Amino acid sequence: MSTDKNILRVRLGAAAHGGHSVARHEGRVIFVRHGIPGEEVSIALRDAGEKSRFWRGDVVEVHEASEHRVPHFWAAADSLRSAERGVLPVGGAEFGHISLEHQRELKGQIFTEQLERLGKIDAAEHGFTGVRTPEGESEDALGWRTRTAFAVDSKGRLAMSPFRSNDLVPVKEMPLAHPKINELKLWELPLLGISRIEVAVGSGEDAGVLVLFVEDGTHTGAAGRAAKRLPEWASAASVTQVGGSVADGRGVLQRLRGRTWLSESVAGHDYRITGEGFWQIHRLAPATLVERVMAQLAPGYGARVADLYAGAGLFSAPLAKAVGDDGMVLSIEGAPGTSKDAVKNLREFPQAVISQGRVEKTLSRELNERKAKLDSIVLDPPRTGAGKAAVSAMVRSGAKKISYVSCDPASFARDTADLAAAGFRLEEIDVIDLYPHTHHMETVGLFRRH
Ligand SMILES: C[S@@+](CC[C@H](N)C(=O)[O-])C[C@H]1O[C@@H](n2cnc3c(N)ncnc32)[C@H](O)[C@@H]1O
């Protein structure tokens, strides 16, 4: 053990949900970031109070490296180079020191563990064979983020934060971001007076780049000055947040140049996404997920389907096309701004009913009003999952098949247990690496009522 009481030398145990390896010291559990199970490392302790139930730590030196360790592709997110500079690594690429193949193996272990512990289900017995790479992924799996957010530090420099920290570390290129985002050279803009920047790249025919500047109220006109320095192909808008975002109806979006929305195109359908409205982040995610959901539900002509947590209608459009004029797609989205986009995106489908509201209440209300039952459901909730109220509304809806798109294995496992208790069996599991170099993963599960 080192003489510095904040540094411990430990052997790393199993991978844990959230991007950690588990280590133990004098009976206490330590969740360690930036290591690989099996390694012997020195860690700098964080959140390590005497009374804390568990501690956290960051790897600062590797004594016995895993065979799966590779040089991190991004200095700002590399814990070893950051330790040498006396700063914390920024979040967002916490698996970048692990070979891609092993990242996927670790995600598979975590998925299996979560499903067993919280869902009481053996993943392998339900067809899980491992985390797969989406078709079309590049060899290095960089440049995939079509959406990225940055902060600005007190000196007006583009910055990002370390995991669970309010520190701001200056950054330049972000290797996971789409090349067009790096081409903007946001780090060269005058950013004093801006608190946050959100950038999105569209995929449609006239796909654009939209830069949103959130002002911090210290320099009037800061967003306008920054926007003028952007390349002419970029659109820009300022966002004033009144306790929330534009998407959830509590922000004001003001056009600075170009458009305030982006166009996206997936499997023959065009979508418009305004401001910070939700869209899948990985460039391959929309097409990959649409293909999976349509294959699992295979809705016939005249079917009645619900798209829950529908966003701007990514799944609603192909579902509406498949069920035709005699069918119904009930598209429920909570954020008012995003739901308005869904109205525009689904205009050509009279069989699509767009309802803005929380799934927990809106699903049963809409079905009761129409005296309708459902054939099938796709749900794609936020990280917190659906929860008991939404699961029970789905069970009451009459749906026989449920395609569950999830970005969190823990909430997926918890909801799986509730669905199983209500008579739904998990028949297919597809876990896709749509967040390479991070600990996140996307799951598409098919449940069938028995
Ligand atoms: C992971 S996104 C999925 C959006 C869409 N399926 C897609 O792929 O583009 C989750 C969406 O659920 C919405 N949302 C979150 N909680 C909700 C709730 N309780 N009821 C309805 N919508 C909710 C969010 O605004 C967000 O648009």
From TrEMBL:
Belongs to the class I-like SAM-binding methyltransferase superfamily. RNA M5U methyltransferase family. S-adenosyl-L-methionine binds at Q280, Y309, E333, D380. Signal peptide: none annotated. The lineage of its organism: Bacteria, Bacillati, Actinomycetota, Actinomycetes, Micrococcales. The active site is at C407. This is tRNA/tmRNA/rRNA uracil-C5-methylase (TrmA/RlmC/RlmD family). InterPro entries: NA-bd_OB-fold, SAM-dependent_MTases_sf, U5_MeTrfase_fam. It comes from Paeniglutamicibacter kerguelensis. Keywords: Methyltransferase, S-adenosyl-L-methionine, Transferase.
